[in-house]
Amino acid sequence: MINAGAAKLKTFRGKRSLEAVSGKIGATRMAWHGWENGNRIPSREYMPKLVGLVPELDAGDFYRDAPAAIAVSQSEAA
After folding, report:
1. 73 to each of 57, 67, 68, 70, 78, how far by Cα in Å?
2. Where are the domains of the chain?
3. Which of 30, 35, 42, 56 could form a disulfide with 47 if both were Cys (CB 3.0 to 4.6 A apart)?
4. Whole-angstrom Cα distance, residue 23 to residue 28?
5. Distance CA 54, CA 25 (A)
6. Domain made up of 4-77: CATH architecture
7. List of residues 6+ apart from 50 with CB closer than 8 A
8. Could you read off the pLDDT of 5-23 as tens digits, one per residue?
9. Measured between alpha carbons, how far is 9 from 55 in angstroms, rounded to an integer?
């Protein structure tokens, strides 16, 4: 199941490219991809940058499951 932080990153990115959003905080597109898909948790270097960039994102979101409605809609879209 995807975590709440990953769901918020995916929503924030929308139709923008991984390069466009990851570049805003100096991360690689692969790093953003890992965070967005719930495969990785941002490091201490990037967590404050993400929290400052993405509205309503909290560091704790990466440790909580996403609401079922968000997780289902993303899996259906894939």
Report:
1. 19, 10, 8, 5, 9
2. 4-77
3. 42
4. 7
5. 11
6. Orthogonal Bundle (1.10)
7. 5, 9, 25, 35, 42, 57
8. 999 999 999 999 999 999 9
9. 10
